[in-house]
Amino acid sequence: MYRVVLKATSLAHEIVKKVVEDGDVVVDATLGNGNDSLFLSSLTPNGKVYSFEVQKSAVDKFNNIIDEKGIKNIKVIYDGHENMDLYIDKKVKTIMFNLGYLPGSDKTVTTKSNTTLEAVQKGLKLLLPGGVMTIAVYIGHEEGQREAEELLKLISELDSKQFSIMNINFINRNNAPFLIVIEKNDSFREDI
Ligand SMILES: C[S@@+](CC[C@H](N)C(=O)[O-])C[C@H]1O[C@@H](n2cnc3c(N)ncnc32)[C@H](O)[C@@H]1O
Fold this sequence. Notes:
Blueprint: H1 8-19, E1 25-28, H2 35-43, E2 48-53, H3 56-69, E3 74-78, E4 92-98, H4 113-126, E5 127-137, H5 142-156, E6 163-168, E7 178-184
Parallel strand pairs: 1-2, 1-4, 2-3, 4-5
Antiparallel strand pairs: 5-7, 6-7
Helix pairs in contact: 4-5
This protein binds S-adenosylmethionine.
């Protein structure tokens, strides 16, 4: 059966698939096990994926995976996404965030509201007009609640002429992750 009501991470893939074309430069802001990076890599074989992660073990593990698979279009960066502007000097078509902690690993290494907000703001500058940012947000833990509140406040204040933004929620599930989708409008202007 073809399902249309999907969990946040799967829905993010469906949306990103419509936007990314081969040759595009894209960002996975939270590498973790690398599912989103591998997905992005498959959408732009001749482009480039920048993937950020603060856990060395995850970086090493994923570098081994891409070496074994012979994947050349992913650059893994062992640094926080809040520093993405230091590594990327081109505009990008999409940026995926999958917030929270990596299931099965150290739960104290979770994304945090201050660095997430900084990364989202920097990411919005790096996005091409017509580009899309997806943010899967987890509210089932304390830091996640704070992060979600601050993130929603930040993005609800963005100019609607510059950005179109949706918040996609399950309304009959408790604490289900939700998905924020931010499109930088085609008419975006740097100077206003
Ligand atoms: C929910 S997991 C990501 C799952 C991943 N997208 C996947 O496909 O497996 C969130 C990840 O963000 C990482 N993280 C936490 N703070 C970060 C930061 N400031 N910059 C980049 N990654 C961060 C965590 O270590 C964790 O691996």
